[in-house]
TrEMBL record, chain A:
Record protein name field: Heme lyase CcmF/NrfE family subunit
Cytochrome c-type biogenesis protein CcmF C-terminal domain location: 316-641
Organism listed in the record: Gluconobacter vitians
Localization: Cell inner membrane
Main location: membrane
Record NCBIfam families: nrfE, PRK10369.1
Highest taxon, organism lineage: Bacteria
Automatic annotation (TrEMBL), chain B:
Domain Thioredoxin residue range list: 44-184
Keywords annotated in UniProt: Cytochrome c-type biogenesis, Disulfide bond, Membrane, Redox-active center, Transmembrane, Transmembrane helix
PROSITE patterns for this protein: THIOREDOXIN_2
Localization: Cell envelope
Location (main, coarse): other
Pfam families named in the record: AhpC-TSA (PF00578)
Taxonomic placement: Bacteria, Pseudomonadati, Pseudomonadota, Alphaproteobacteria, Acetobacterales
Ranges annotated as spanning the membrane: 6-25
Name of the molecule in the record: DsbE family thiol:disulfide interchange protein
Length: 659, 184
């Protein structure tokens, strides 16, 4: 019922359905044939069902330890815990491509179900584009990375999973990140459909924005989760390594953030139309290219999938069709989209333009830094690496004006703002930021961390004061405040929350720039001090876990003689994979993380020493907390009535026609 | 044709995507032919004289050797860093034995107990003309070794002319080492 052959067949069936989903509605839309266009949602849902069934089959193969399936034999084992048998399905190349297409199909299903208020032709075209992309990736899955490939004879047990990946954080990181990546396929499809139709208007901006915001929320969560994972699992004390794979997720996040903002201008002022369409295309293109770069092996990264240039050629061809095709369509049709809005630089839309320029500049820097090494090697034959110093030096100066503008932007009215009046709203926030600056001078060292820290406080204060002013705190009665709170659009709450989240993340980054660490070699009972805390190695003992041997340390941390906590970092040896992992011990009070790692044991008897790595990471949890707050802000604005209802006029018109 | 903002906005993405696409395609096709390897390790010592060293031998396999002895050779020598604990080194041995019919290979046991290293290379017949022990990996640091197995082609007079950071086999010998011997 749920065997590998059924799964393989369902995948092929989904691929055929996706091809039909691509061809029929487009043809129908051209012939203005409502029946053909009307098939699109049904095709999308059937494709989703077929693909969901296929994925379920793969999960069942993994759960039932069917080692005749190559993918399961290579990545699973009988002794693996059930949770990791399930999540291990997407922990490898083949399974993750299947998950990728499944999420794309879910997006298609969501457009079919939630897009009922869209004009039929537009919905048909959007679904057709999604179907086309789906078909391409399902063909990739079937032809070059078939997850249902069989082996004969089937091995008795599988080879097991990389112990580093046996972690709940990583188990759910890929689905969330992929939902973010793939979610941007919907704005992309909207952009291409709009180009085919030759019309972008306020209604289009309103339709496309919730999809972009939803994808953005997932991508934000995915990046934060990945960064958190590398912080507490890899045990290097770092949180972001400017690794090509991390950059591959940051690049679409930056253009996606720009898209979420520029779509507001399309919705409110019918401006920036071409730019928004281009951003929608670019964001999804970057998502796709990221997937390609990771899997082709071109980029030298710690996150290596089993690389295969043959797969790379297939994805590159797919990219050429999707990206090349959409950009060619853009070049051909964009001139027909006319912009109506003219706007002054000092206005809400002006500040959004500035936001877009800065975000895209940061994006250009990250793209350059990521692509420079492989291109340098290709053209000059020299191997170089571009790392943290470049990215820090190039991105932070662009982030400073971005933070400054974030605080001012939401306080500006649309069309034309009076500077004096706007600034009068911001006195309080500026005052708090000034206090913050003093605080930063006291606590932080270095010009850039101080500037970033003060500006982050400014963003938080300005966003909070903007909401407080709108709900009339200070000049309306309590009853009035309550009324205004209820009527303030959710999207305003969402924007303020997202901006506050960004401020919290930046504060966390500033705190982490002051992190201190020490690598010490100590005997049992010895004490070392780091930044005012005394770390004592109390004891080290060995124990045997389910599929590993472990060495666990007890480290007491005292501050001024008072016990703060006892950390228990571990080092685990996984015997079947002959791999060692470190289990970091972290004590957090949400202001400072005390982070301990145990390394090697040296010597024997009384001379036994242990290598310990001690970290003191100020404000570390704020980085991910901020990401979460940003995503919650996005989700809040998604719940806004205006986002859900779509274009009321059109719906009303259709209802009238029906009546 | 006059340059407009809209023209730039449509041209730049297409040109950018095109350049990236052509570059990626070149990288992929070079990766298949082996000309482009993103994980290649470039050794800065290639083209330079070998560093100074003196190492003891392994039990039952004669004395070690020094840089002076290596420099005094009249034929090119392949210097191979290996270890008995290294799985690719085990896999490399048949290939090394095949290569050793064409040219001398001198082995350096990297961070290995001398008795283990000695037993390891004598198990199926040693490919090495001479063997030395780099017990604590000090010499390997001077050579710029990042892992085992790694091999260096040393010209008479002691100049390093080629470096390989993968397990050697006759194919690599024919493709990379033999053409370089012709010029010596």
């Amino acid at each position: 019922m749920f065997g590998p052959e059924q799964g393989h067949f369902a995948l092929a069936l989904a691929c055929v359905l996706a091809l039909v989903q691509f061809a029929v509605p487009l043809w129908g839309a051209n012939r203005r044939d409502a029946r053909l266009v009307g098939l699109a949602p049904y095709l999308a849902v059937s494709q989703l069902i077929a693909l969901g069934y296929s994925f379920l089959c793969l999960v069942m193969c993994a759960v039932s330890d069917d080692f005749s399936v190559q993918n399961v034999a290579a990545n699973s084992a009988v002794s693996k815990p059930l949770l990791y048998k399930i999540t291990g399905v997407w922990g490898n190349h083949e399974g993750s491509v299947l998950l990728w297409t499944l999420i794309l199909a879910v997006c298609g299903g969501a457009v079919s179900l939630f897009g009922r208020n869209l004009p039929d032709i537009l919905r048909g075209r959007v679904l057709a584009i999604l179907g086309g992309v789906s078909a391409g990736f399902q063909m990739f899955c079937l032809l070059t990375s078939d997850p249902f490939d069989r082996v004969f004879p089937a091995p008795m047990d599988g080879q097991g999973m990389n112990p580093l990946l046996q972690d709940p954080g990583l188990a759910f990181h890929p689905p969330i990140l992929y939902t973010g990546y793939v979610g941007f396929a919907v704005p992309f499809a909207f952009a291409v459909a709009a180009l085919i139709e030759g019309r972008v208007d306020a209604a289009w901006g309103r339709w496309v924005r919730p999809w972009a915001v939803a994808a953005w929320c997932f991508l934000t969560c995915g990046i934060a989760l990945g960064s958190w994972w590398s912080y507490y699992v890899l045990g290097w004390g770092g949180y972001w390594f400017w690794d090509p794979v991390e950059n591959a997720s940051l690049i679409p996040w930056l253009t996606g953030t720009a898209l979420v903002h520029s779509a507001i201008v399309v919705e409110k002022r019918e401006g920036l139309k071409i730019w928004t369409v281009l951003l929608a295309i670019a964001t999804f293109s970057f998502s796709l290219s990221g997937t390609f770069l990771v899997r082709s092996g071109i980029l030298n990264s710690v996150h290596a999938f089993a690389n295969d240039p043959a797969r790379g050629v297939f994805i590159l061809a797919l990219l050429a069709i999707v990206i090349g095709g959409s950009l060619a369509l853009f070049a051909w049709r964009a001139p027909s989209l006319t912009s109506t809005g003219l706007f002054s630089p000092i206005s809400r839309e002006g500040s959004l333009v500035l936001n877009n320029i800065l975000l895209c500049s940061i994006c250009a820097v990250v793209v350059t830094g990521t692509m420079y090494p492989p291109f340098m090697q290709l053209l000059a034959g020299r191997t170089i690496s571009v790392g943290k110093p470049f990215f820090d030096a190039a991105t932070i100066p662009l982030t400073l004006p971005l933070l400054l503008a974030m605080g001012v932007g939401t306080a500006l009215p649309w069309k034309r703002a009076q500077l004096a009046r706007t600034f009068s709203h911001l006195y309080a926030a500026a005052g708090i930021a000034a206090i913050g600056l003093v605080l930063c001078f006291w606590k932080l060292s270095g010009v850039l961390p101080i500037a970033c820290g003060a500006l982050a406080i400014w963003v938080i204060a300005a966003s909070a004061s903007d909401v407080l002013r709108r709900i009339g705190i200070g000049h309306t009665s309590a009853q009035g405040v309550w009324e205004r709170m209820k009527h303030l659009p959710r999207s305003s709450w969402g924007a303020a929350l997202a901006h506050i989240g960004a401020g919290i993340t930046v504060l966390g980054l500033c705190g982490m720039s002051q992190a201190q660490h020490a690598i010490v070699e100590v005997h049992i009972g010895e004490t070392r001090s780091l930044a005012g805390d005394d770390w004592t190695l109390l004891d080290v003992h060995d124990y045997i876990g389910p599929n590993y041997k472990a060495m666990q340390a007890d480290i007491a941390i005292r501050h001024n003689g008072k016990l703060v906590t006892i950390l228990h970092p571990e080092k685990r040896d996984f015997t079947t994979q002959s791999q060692t992992t470190t289990e970091v011990a972290i004590h957090t009070n949400f202001i400072t993380d005390l982070y301990g790692v145990i390394g090697d044991r040296h010597g024997t008897g009384k001379d036994t020493t242990y290598v310990l790595r001690l970290h003191r990471n100020p404000l570390a949890p704020w980085m991910w907390l901020g990401g979460l707050v940003m995503a919650i802000g996005g989700a809040f604005s998604l719940s806004d009535r205006r986002m859900r209802i779509g274009a009321p006029k059109r719906a009303a018109a259709r209802n009238m026609a029906r009546a | 044709m006059n340059v407009t903002r809209r023209g730039i906005l449509t041209a730049v993405p297409i040109i950018g995507a095109g350049v990236l696409g052509v570059g990626f395609w070149r990288m992929l096709s070079d990766m298949r032919s082996g000309a482009f390897d993103p994980r290649a390790i470039k050794n800065p010592n290639v083209g330079k004289p070998i560093p100074g060293f003196a190492m003891p031998g392994l039990p039952g396999l004669g004395d070690g050797f020094t840089d002076a002895e290596l420099k005094a050779q009249h034929r090119p020598v392949l210097v191979n860093f290996f270890a008995s604990w290294c799985i690719p080194c085990v896999a490399e041995m048949p290939g090394l034995r095949a290569i050793s019919r064409n040219m001398p290979i001198w082995g350096i046991a990297y961070e290995d107990k001398p008795e283990n290293a000695s037993a390891f290379i004598q198990r199926d017949g040693s490919p090495y003309a001479r063997v030395a022990s780099d017990r604590h990996g000090r010499v390997a640091i001077d050579w710029g070794v990042t892992g085992v197995p790694e091999s260096f082609l040393v010209a008479p007079g002691g100049r390093i002319i080629w470096h390989g950071s993968a397990a050697l086999d006759p194919q690599i010998y024919e493709a990379e080492i033999r053409p370089r011997l012709a010029g010596l």
